[in-house]
Automatic annotation (TrEMBL):
Matching Gene3D superfamilies: DD-peptidase/beta-lactamase superfamily
KW Nucleotide-binding (keyword) present: no
Subcellular location: Membrane
One of the Pfam families matching this protein, by short name: Beta-lactamase
Native source species: Flagellimonas nanhaiensis
Keyword list, A-Z: Hydrolase, Membrane
Keyword Membrane: yes
Main location: membrane
Segments forming domain Beta-lactamase-related: 75-379
Protein name listed in UniProt: Class A beta-lactamase-related serine hydrolase
Gene Ontology cellular component list: membrane
Length: 385
């Protein structure tokens, strides 16, 4: 981004501080997504060692206790060798209506949507419609020439584009509740300059994945949302996954809940009585519809389908699948562990798969980070040891 690095948690941008500095309207938008697995909070404090549970029953008892004390809400799946070790629902999908979460409840994925977008791009590369080294200006000429002429598709996938995110854009802040089409993001991103030379520095970038989504729809000739439904969700058998519009009635869709009020962020020091008071509905704090960079909804069963379909090379060739699972880092072998996650106010989702042990752990949580990620870490420590 033009104004340099920003404090992040799973890619979460502290917008309140940016807006105060720029005298913009004071609406808190802590929007975040992460596919890179960065753990940080506030000043990036080190994580404590995750304490394993004695067994699956102990884990379920702990989760129920956390839910009963309003410290956890969401769905949890632990599966190994085709057997469900844990498959449980906790908490409420709607606190306002007292609707409990069930195993088919659709919960916000945050940045996990980036994985779907990457699959779409790699499919188009395999089809010969685009190339890794193509410059993005070839497909999105509206971008500044000095920006787009340097950024390749590879740079965008690797998050080495030199672009950050657009959350402090006045255009975005004034219109985020009405953004329903990816093309709406073009003028927002086009207003920025590069913060580093493309290809030289890995910088977390939501803007990069919005551009990849726009690329998908311009090259394929289909709306991005239609393309991903047909070429990812349908092929993987994902029947409850989409970028639902949250201002419309959607059956069994979870609301997200935060302990932070509007005007507060993840660096706000809260009193002890509010540390687990996830009482604030965040439905209107982010764009009304998910994008290519994040914000879509899914279920634990759908995410299971995605992982198994992807890792068995049914969505992409083995070569492309290896590249995706290795997060576009050069490696002669596929990493046996595939780990993707997303987090923001009222969102904390984790998908962990160790192919060498056929161990799948999915936590979809509708509370702030690190609630879901802490549960996932303990489950990983228990079953992946």
């Amino acid at each position: 981004m033009a104004n340099g690095r920003l404090p992040t948690y799973f890619g979460i941008i502290s917008l309140e501080k940016i807006k105060k500095r720029n005298n913009m309207k004071k609406t808190l938008l802590c929007i975040a997504f992460s596919i890179l697995g960065v753990y940080s909070y506030g000043q990036r404090r080190p994580l404590h060692k995750a304490v394993p549970f004695k067994d699956a029953n102990a884990a379920k008892a702990y989760l129920q206790n956390q839910a009963d004390s309003l410290k956890f809400s969401g769905n949890v799946l632990v599966m190994q060798n085709g057997k469900d070790l844990i498959k449980e629902s906790y908490g409420l999908a709607s606190k306002e209506k007292n609707i409990p979460i069930n195993i088919d409840t659709k919960i916000n994925l945050g940045s996990i949507n980036k994985a779907f977008t990457a699959v779409c791009v790699l499919q188009l590369i395999e089809a010969g419609k685009i190339n890794f080294e193509d410059k993005i200006t070839k497909y999105i000429p509206e971008l500044k020439a000095n920006m787009a002429n340097e950024i390749s598709i590879r740079n965008l996938l690797e998050m080495k584009s030199g672009l950050g995110s657009y959350w402090d854009s006045p255009i975005f802040l004034d219109n985020y509740k009405n953004l329903r089409n990816l093309e709406d993001y073009v003028p927002i991103i086009a207003a920025y300059s590069l913060s580093s030379k493309p290809g030289t520095e890995r910088q977390y970038s939501n803007s990069s994945y919005e551009l990849l989504g726009i690329l998908v729809q311009r090259v394929s000739g289909q709306n991005y949302y239609d393309y991903v439904r047909e070429n990812v969700y349908k092929k993987a058998g994902m029947v409850n996954t989409d970028a639902f519009e949250r201002d419309k009635s959607v059956q069994n869709l979870a609301q997200g809940y935060s302990k932070f009020k509007v005007g507060e962020d993840f660096e706000t020091q809260l009193p002890p009585e509010r540390q687990y008071a996830f009482n604030y509905n965040v439905n209107d704090r982010s764009p009304v519809k998910g994008t290519a960079a994040g914000g879509g909804f899914s279920t634990v069963d759908d995410m299971k389908q995605f992982v198994y379909t992807l890792t068995s090379n049914q969505l992409l060739s083995k070569t492309s699948t290896d590249l995706l699972i290795n997060h576009f880092r050069d490696s002669p072998d596929r990493n046996p562990v595939y780990n993707i996650r997303g987090g923001s106010t009222g969102i904390n989702s984790v998908v962990f798969y160790n192919a060498s042990k056929d161990l799948l752990i999915i936590v979809l949580c509708n509370y702030d980070p690190p609630v879901g990620s802490e549960v996932a870490r303990r489950l990983i420590a228990t079953f992946n040891s």
